[in-house]
Amino acid sequence: MGTTDTSRPGRGRPLAGAGTSPTGLLDLLNVAAVVLDTNGRVVFWSPQAEDLFGYTAEEALGRFAVQLLVNEEHRDEVITLFAEVMGSGTDWAGAFPVRHKDGSTRLVEFRNMRLLDDLGDTYALGLAVDQATVARVERGVALSARLVTQSPVGLAILDPGLRYLTVNPALERIHGRSAAEHLGRRVPDVLTFLDAEAIEDELRQVLATGEPVTDRYVVGRPPSDPHREHAWSVSMHRLEDAAGRVLGVATSVIDITERHEATIAATRARNRLAMIAGASAAIGSTLDVEQTAHELAGVVVPDLADVATVHVLDSILRGRTPSVAGPARFRAVAVAAAHAPEAHITDPPGELIRYDGDRLLTRCVRTRRPVRVAATTRDDLRRIARSSEAAALLESTGVHSYLAVPLLARGEVLGALSLERTRTPAPFDEDDTLLACELAGRAAICIDNARWYQSARNTALTLQRRLLPQLPSRLPGLSIACRYLPAGASSEIGGDWFDAMRLAGDRSALVVGDVMGSGINAAASMGQLRSATRAFAGLDLDPAEVLRQLDRLTEDVEHTIATCAYCRYDPERGRCRISLAGHLPPALVRSGRPAQLLDLPSGVPLGVGGTAFTTTEFPFRPGDQLALYTDGLVETRRDPIDARLGTLLDVLTATADRDLGETCDRVLETLRPPGGDDDVALLVARVES
Asked: For the residues 142-159, what does the mean pLDDT come to?
């Protein structure tokens, strides 16, 4: 059989031509090999035997093993076992106490078997391992198996080809697939509900570089729970044996769905608070129903819904009490859409729209409660839309979730905010409903304020327009044109007025005035002053005296202050007499010359009292024009009044030879932008040739 080689080859060094590198398991067990001849003498002694028993090969070879290794009390038993193995060829395995060279006794686990060489000689081979080492390895294996099996962390081992070798029960539960569905398969074959290609690329990188990946955040919907989004923390590291040979990749997966949902909930809460705070600043910037509705729709799209429509009951807009039965009539005051808005508008803004009593929007305003359809069906869309055509449009645009909340203000329902989701995958939930109700409630108060203000403003504007006279286009020797513009929709009306009347002796009176303040009180005061001015003008009083009488009258009207320009024209003499009460100077355009402001004593406003008024006379000949106006035409918060007055003179000069109506329009187009902050009265008179 040859001599025994007691040298120790380098650990992990493969034999020439071997297909794989050795593992470290035998090194871990340190298995000793001893060969005995038929007489029980040691004929082979491995280096591991020296480690296990303490005897060198020189000390052991040729000696009887029973004398060398067995205590006296166990020798008969060992001799009997040896005879059985050599005689019958039966293998024997078990633990047996062995005497060490140092005199101690150690429990060694043996596996004994008979060998036969090519000459027909028999030998006994004993493989021995320290029983304490075996017990330690067994405990480690058992502990590892228990940890893997019972761990709540999903664990898997993949071979160098990145195919599953083993998975634990926790990973089976996480993936929603059995171990059999994992083993031998690649990641993309198993994790079809995730971006598995990206995961496999990371595993390949870990395998190649040895750099681990820790706490990679992965989100998906596993087959075991497809209706809930789950989140996992995934770590990956390369596996190597004691010799440094790469065995594959190990992965650990921790379910962090609850933490993920808590994070999402916290983020949503912050976003909702931010939306509410933003809505408080954005909604109600003006006292205009339409603008407020657009602000509400703009706040909820796209953060809360893909499509939003603000439906206001038509009866509310017309100042009537809403009907409590039958169909509901709305006006879609504002519509907003996150994607292709023209495709989503089933209720065009401004149109009168009828919803039958069985429609969800009607139910929302009748019950004053939110209506939510988390996942819409075709039947739901028929109850959401006002018509079959509208239902087909909703279906074609992918509406899959619907929410309507009432617009409630001061115990009255004004309409409803309807929301739709088309591309946002999540359905409306209870939190969305609460947020929509909060936003709709804030907007409803603003809409209610706007509609009451608009009603009061319309009343005052109607009053003011009714109080303004219907002026003749001609008076003796004069052509006249006039214009009145109220303040913008977000401002209250003022007390501006104009008048022109025929006096005795073919004379004429021209008047422009402005009651300070706004609203119905200003309009009513304006009506009183206009009537009084006509009465005093009929007495053929001098302009300064007319203003003095008006001033005395105004002192008796509480909190009324007004400015006024009163002019009396005498065509026979070709002259005008004019007096101002705190009013801006009129503009005079003489035939063939540029316009200029009259240099007149401005006086003090009516209602201040204690100051005399002055009358100034100036020529007013054929072709001359006189423009009287209120301060709303030239006073702004942005531009110096001198520049505005200069612009007025430029326009009057440029239109001196045009129709007076055209002149008025050009003046207003140039100096008064749409939605100005103050009302304007303008009167232009020209002496006829």
From this structure: 76
- Spatial contact of 437 and 416, defined as CB atoms under 8 Å apart: no
Query: Which residue bears the tokens 């912050």?
Result: 270
Q: What is the pLDDT of residue 512?
A: 95
CA distances from 626 to 245, 510, 576, 588, 600 (A): 106, 10, 10, 5, 14
| Pair 615, 542: CB distance under 8 Å | yes
- pLDDT, tens digit, 9 for 90 and up, residues 83-137: 888 887 778 888 888 889 888 888 888 888 888 888 888 888 888 888 877 777 7
Is the dihedral angle over the CA atoms 216, 217, 220, 222 positive or is it negative? Answer: positive
Contact (CB, 8 A) for 639 and 620: no
pLDDT of 2 strictly over 60: no
Query: Tokens in use for 625?
Result: 């024009």
Chain Cα centroid distance, residue 122: 86
What is the pTM assigned to this prediction? 0.51
Q: Which CATH class is domain 278-456?
A: alpha beta
Does 489 have pLDDT greater than 80? no
Task: Assign 3-state DSSP to the chain and report helix, strand, coil percentages, each to 5.
Answer: 35, 25, 35
User: Residue 492: exposed, middle, or buried by beta-carbon count in 10 A (0-12, 13-18, 19+)?
Assistant: buried
> Is 594's pLDDT higher than 90?
yes
Domain boundaries, the chain: 26-136, 151-255, 278-456, 468-687
For 151-255, give the CATH class: alpha beta
Q: Give me 391's structure tokens.
A: 């239902």
Strands (DSSP E) along 314-468, which ranges?
A: 328-337, 352-355, 371-373, 401-409, 412-421
CATH no. for 26-136: 3.30.450.20
Rounded Cα gap, residues 193 and 323, in angstroms: 52
Is the fold of 26-136 the same as that of 151-255?
A: yes
Q: Give the C-alpha distances (Å, rounded to integers) separating 183 from 186, 204, 211, 237, 341.
A: 9, 18, 25, 19, 51
**Cis-peptide into 302, omega within 30 deg:** yes
CATH class of the domain whose range is 468-687: alpha beta
